[in-house]
Specification:
By secondary structure, this protein is mostly beta strands. The protein is 6% helix and 43% strand. The protein is built from two helices and 13 strands, in the order ββββββαβαββββββ.
């Protein structure tokens, strides 16, 4: 992986839970409990934390981190992003890609028209979408485009080496 030293945000510390240092966890992993497969966590305070215990709590999850022993300690880390080293992420197959790898890739139509550069990837519930910042002299006057990231019907190829996404897309849309 070329960006092995990068940090990847996998969740966020939520509100304190109780008085013994437990906190609610907002997981960004596909399966919420999957966040506990990664350790240590690097929080936005630039410190590493180990998980002592965790458990489901209704539809949420709560955790106790080592050295977070009081409600005041939990309040101190509230709302901090949970990051890990990117090298901890599993290797993907040739036809799979992490969202973070898409940022900065060129987007080109199957007819060769340069649509721009990926600035963001997000999920709408129905499918993933890439926000593409159009090139400055876009012939269609577009500043940005929102393109569904759906393989076969829209996205034809993702070339990780050349950093180019080829799409079947009307440049005027």
């Amino acid at each position: 992986m070329s960006q092995a030293s990068d940090k990847v945000v996998i969740g966020k510390i939520g509100a304190p839970y109780g008085v013994k240092g437990w906190v609610k966890i907002n997981s960004f992993t596909e399966v919420p409990e999957g966040i506990f497969d990664y350790s240590p966590w690097l929080l936005a305070d630039e410190k590493e934390y180990q998980i002592d215990q965790w458990r489901p709590h209704g539809k949420a999850i709560v955790a106790k981190l080592i050295d977070i022993d009081s409600r005041d300690d939990a309040e101190r880390i509230k709302n901090l992003d949970i990051s890990i080293d990117a090298e901890q992420l599993p290797e993907l197959g040739d036809d799979e890609v992490y969202w973070r790898e898409l940022n900065g890739m060129q987007v080109v139509t199957t007819q060769g028209y340069q649509l721009g550069v990926v600035k963001e990837v997000f999920n709408t519930g129905a499918n993933d979408v890439i926000r593409v910042k159009a090139k400055a002299n876009d012939a269609f006057g577009q500043k940005e485009r929102l393109i569904p990231f759906v393989f076969d019907s829209v996205v034809q190829t993702v070339d990780k080496t050349e950093r180019v996404i080829t799409v079947e897309w009307d440049p005027g849309f």
